[in-house]
Design brief:
83 residues, globular, alpha+beta
Length: 83
């Protein structure tokens, strides 16, 4: 799933923490991909180290996400819905 970062602060600690929290609860792998580099979304350190800025395109790859709900939740956070 391709997502454009809409938060002017990019992917900072708060959304990265929410993404890691969701990813850690999922039994399968959860990855974010930027510039063909793959980052394990279960680690907040990995997410912050991505250096994701406003306007960047990130791919969300969730293994065994049959209904796509985990990917959609993560995508909405990347798009700026951290609530």
């Amino acid at each position: 799933m391709k997502v454009v970062v809409k938060d002017v602060n990019g992917l900072h600690a708060r959304p990265a923490g929410k993404i890691a929290e969701i990813a850690q609860k999922h039994a399968g792998g959860v990855f974010l991909i930027k510039n063909e580099l793959r980052y394990n979304a279960k680690s907040i350190i990995n997410l912050i180290s991505m250096g994701v800025l406003f306007g960047d395109v990130v791919l969300v790859d969730v293994e065994d996400d049959e209904d796509g709900m985990i990917g959609k939740r993560i995508a909405s956070i990347i798009e700026g819905d951290v609530a």
